[in-house]
Amino acid sequence: MGLRSRHQNSGVPEVNLVPMMDVLMTVLTFFVIISMELSGVQIFGVSLPQAVSGVDEEVVEKTEPLVIGLREDGKAVYNDEPVVTAALAPIVQGYFAENPEGFVLLKADRTLPYADVAKLLADLRSIGGKRVSLAVE
């Protein structure tokens, strides 16, 4: 008795699924990576800083902040009146003399480039405002 081979000429073609599964896994991996990138998940293990409030909540309740605005034309505003940066120095220093635990709150227009906002923040810190916050919505 001879052993019969499994692969006789039966006329039924064989389908090799391995190449097809390789292609499907590649496409699936591509879409998973793209969807992770679009949803904001970090793929490369970079840990981004989280926004935290640098202001103590008890201090906020005790003292009223000094609010300074920055309009869309780049001009600083105090008490709804335009003011130059040099004129902010005595205002900020006087506020901190009266309220040593107080803080300065900067409200900038959302259409401004961040470079303008950062410049005013740096100017406020150099004046003497060690507790300067940026208000965001």
UniProtKB/TrEMBL annotation:
Gene3D superfamilies documented for this protein: 3.30.420.270
Residues that span the membrane, as ranges: 20-38
GO cellular component: plasma membrane
GO-annotated molecular function: transmembrane transporter activity
Membrane topology label: Single-pass membrane protein; Single-pass type II membrane protein
Record key words, sorted: Cell membrane, Membrane, Protein transport, Transmembrane, Transmembrane helix, Transport
InterPro entries (UniProt xref): ExbD
Major localisation: membrane
Subcellular location: Cell membrane
Annotated Pfam families: ExbD
One GO term of the biological process aspect: protein transport
Family named by the database record: Belongs to the ExbD/TolR family.
Protein name: Biopolymer transporter ExbD
